[in-house]
Amino acid sequence: MKEKDRRSKNASVTAAKGRGAEARGGRHEPRHPSAKSGAPKGKAGGLPSPKAAAQKSPRSAAQESTPARSIEPRSGEKPAETVPLILETVPTAGYHLIDSGDGEKLEQYGPYRIVRPEAQALWPKALPAAVWEKADAIFTGDTDEDGMGRWRFPREALGETWPMQLLDTDFLGRFTSFRHVGVFPEQLAHWSWMKDQVAASGRPLKVLNLFGYTGVASLVAAKAGAEVTHVDASKKAIGWARENQAMARAEKLPIRWICDDAMKFIQREERRGSRYDIILTDPPKFGRGPNGEVWQLFDHLAAMLDICREILSPDARGLVLTAYSIRASFYSIHELMRETMRGRGGRVESGELIIREGGLDGKAPGRALSTSLFSRWVPK
Questions:
Q1: Which H or E element spans position 298?
Q2: What local confidence, expressed as pLDDT, does residue 380 receive?
Q3: What is the pTM of this model?
Q4: Is domain 8-92+184-378 given the CATH code 3.40.50.1000 in the classification?
Q5: 189-210 per-position pLDDT tens digit
Q6: Separation between Cα atoms, residue 115 and residue 106, nearest integer Å
Q7: Residue 371: which of 19, 1, 17, 2 has the closest Cα?
Q8: Average of per-residue pLDDT across 251-280
Q9: How far apart are CA 152 and CA 157, in angstroms?
Q10: Structural domain boundaries in the chain
Q11: Among 354, 339, 346, 341, which residue's Cα sits nearest to residue 378?
């Protein structure tokens, strides 16, 4: 693991979302970005590459960073632990992993069969080439997680978006230039857990979705009865989230859509004394906030979690961290979470999120594809 010094006393901050800098998309575009408008219909849209963003400004990281408040050592016993915990996404009506192998994955997203690069798919493909060749969309170009490329549509030209539904929540799938499609299905494991917590609480829980990307998790939580605050540094991602809200016919649900640097936002919430019952946080390994703030996962994660602990309510139901595309063990974020939650009791559960192959019909369980690391604190 290439670990940088965490330098918690001078942790800087930020927050583009995605699995890289912009998006989820990744994540999270990678979960996160900054263009102001989507691509025209019929063309794949996307967010600017983190690599490109890093080259745009001659200012140093120190100039663009905002110091976070210092971290004081926690006292008390560390929470109990469950490791490793493997959370699995199985085939659903709206999504399933058909096959994977040879550095690619074949997925069913609603009506479309999609091929994308997948470095974790080290094994040979199980299904014949004829099945893969019937894909509706294939991502080509840079196979790096943050690399830009383009979509090829072998059968017929497709628009930028298409209707999707997961956990009874409608939203738009989306072809982006970072190979992401507007949703990360492995997160269904966390969303189902969150939905159950909200439904069983007997009161409206306050949920903070930090680095919220296209808002599917926020919509799931709000539809279950939560009051949601959704934060992402990308104006484009916030725009997509509002489109998803309209698609879900959820305009009247209590969701605050906030375009802001994640660290700046939670620091203000700490000063205000704001509290949340569930916090979902899905930071990129690198990103920039709306004003050029710099986020580096290994430098800033400890400070971010420390602040998140401070804004958890006394009767909180959980703090969830997901980490993509980093050279680290889940044990690294597991131990960080346990240190962060010293003296709070409860339990820290850490491991990996996986997606199980389901074959063409989604009913033939196959191999498990690892997608990300996670750590989750729960009160008991």
A1: helix 297-310
A2: 87
A3: 0.83
A4: no
A5: 999 999 999 999 999 999 999 9
A6: 5
A7: 19
A8: 97
A9: 8
A10: 8-92+184-378
A11: 346
